[in-house]
Structure formats: C-alpha cells, structure tokens
Amino acid sequence: MELNAEHPVVLLIGKTGKHLIFICAGKSTLGNFLVGAPQDNELFPTSAKMETVTKECSAGIMLIDDVQYNIVDTPGLFDTEQGSNPILEKISEVVNKCAHGVKAILIVFEAQRFTDEQRNVLDKIRTFLGKDATNNIILVFSKANRVQTNNRNVMKRDCVRTVSSFIQVIGNRWGISPNPDIFSPDEETFRVRLREIKDLIISIQGVYTTTQLEKNRNLMKLMAATAITAIVFTFGVILDGGAL
C-alpha cells in the first residue's frame, strides 16, 4: 500500500466477518462512493457474501473541493479468520506511515443492528486509539433504510443510548452512507448525504499522529502490567492465607 505523503489521510474502520451479525459493515462501499468509483469498477472490493473481503489495507485518492486526500480501507474488525488484534496492528502501521498524521477516522456502523458486538467495536476502537483521536472521529451509518436516510432526525432517534453517547463524545460528527440498494448515485438524497460526510472531513481541525497513538499504546501496556501485578499480589495473599 502506497500513500502520497503530500496528501491528508482519511481512515475507514468497520467490522466484518463470517458470522451473520458481522456481514459487510459497508466501509468499502463508502470508500468507493467517496472516490467516485463506478459500481462496475470498484477501487475497494465489496461483496454481499458471508466473508470478509478486505484482508489488507488498501488506499486510493479522493478529491474534496480540489483538495486531494489519501483514503485507506482497513480490514474489518472482528474478522473471524484474523481476529481483532492483528487488524488493530495493521491500522497502527497505517497511522505510522502517515507523515502528516490522519485527518479523519471514519468508523462505519451498520444502522440496522445495534447489538452488544457494536458496543464492543466502539469500546475497542476508542481504547486502542485513545482519547486523542476523539477530535478526528466521524461515525457513519451504513445500510440505513429509506426513512432514516431521508430524515437524519429519524436516524438519530433510532440510535441506542450507547451510540448516542458516543456521538456526543466525538462532537456530534456523524453521517449516513446511502444504501446503494435503495438510492442511485444520481438521486439528490444520495448526493446530499455524501456531501455531508465530506463536509465533516473538511471541518476537522488538526490531525491524529503517530506520537499520540504510541502514547496511548504505552499507557495501555502500563495499565495491563499494573493489573497483572495486582492480580498476582492478590492471588499470593490468598495462597498465604492472609487477608486484604
């Protein structure tokens, strides 16, 4: 995967996998929308089959108001073949390649399934990237129905509390990726929703950097080591017959 160091980076993150609840989050579809790739010549492969299509990070160039951006499609979190940790490592490698940092992190979320797995996705991404990434995250709903897509208030109303709270934490930056099974690219709703996502990308001030990622990873390692030490100490006291 080659990135143009002169262009800002937009990262696509989502969940996919072989189980039914994990099928195709829609991030690769959104990536194709943003770069303007026709459905019969996709830059980022998509599939409706029960398998994860994106296995490695892949990149393309998108244009917003005459400004070029690198857009990077990442493998799906919770991919049942690879697991989440290797995927997070690949995302880390992408961030490390971004000389000027990451402009926007688009977390693509399937609108029709507000489940415990989705909560786990949000928790895992937030924990891995750290609070420094909060100012660069945009939540994008995919596979919304016609009513939700036509009326953002309906989409917002349908969100469970966990998702609504997350939206507030990231500064109310969220959008809707039009469902290609419902809307064609020449429809106004399709164009408006896509433009809203592009405007959110433009509006972000500052970038998420390698330094911020490494700082958070070091903090996570320290917290894990502290927790292990506490468990070992507690277990030792119990074996000795002592009391805490």
Automatic annotation (TrEMBL):
<keyword id="KW-0342">GTP-binding</keyword>
<dbReference type="GO" id="GO:0005525">
    <property type="term" value="F:GTP binding"/>
</dbReference>
<keyword id="KW-0813">Transport</keyword>
<keyword id="KW-1002">Plastid outer membrane</keyword>
<keyword id="KW-0472">Membrane</keyword>
<keyword id="KW-0479">Metal-binding</keyword>
<keyword id="KW-0934">Plastid</keyword>
<dbReference type="GO" id="GO:0046872">
    <property type="term" value="F:metal ion binding"/>
</dbReference>
<dbReference type="Pfam" id="PF04548">
    <property type="entry name" value="AIG1"/>
</dbReference>
<feature type="transmembrane region" description="Helical">
    <location>
        <begin position="222"/>
        <end position="239"/>
    </location>
</feature>
<dbReference type="GO" id="GO:0015031">
    <property type="term" value="P:protein transport"/>
</dbReference>
<keyword id="KW-0150">Chloroplast</keyword>
<dbReference type="InterPro" id="IPR006703">
    <property type="entry name" value="G_AIG1"/>
</dbReference>
<feature type="domain" description="AIG1-type G">
    <location>
        <begin position="10"/>
        <end position="179"/>
    </location>
</feature>
<dbReference type="InterPro" id="IPR045058">
    <property type="entry name" value="GIMA/IAN/Toc"/>
</dbReference>
<keyword id="KW-0812">Transmembrane</keyword>
<dbReference type="InterPro" id="IPR027417">
    <property type="entry name" value="P-loop_NTPase"/>
</dbReference>
<keyword id="KW-1133">Transmembrane helix</keyword>
<keyword id="KW-0653">Protein transport</keyword>
<dbReference type="GO" id="GO:0016020">
    <property type="term" value="C:membrane"/>
</dbReference>
<keyword id="KW-0547">Nucleotide-binding</keyword>
<keyword id="KW-0460">Magnesium</keyword>
<protein>
    <submittedName>
        <fullName>P-loop containing nucleoside triphosphate hydrolase protein</fullName>
    </submittedName>
</protein>
<keyword id="KW-0378">Hydrolase</keyword>
<dbReference type="GO" id="GO:0016787">
    <property type="term" value="F:hydrolase activity"/>
</dbReference>
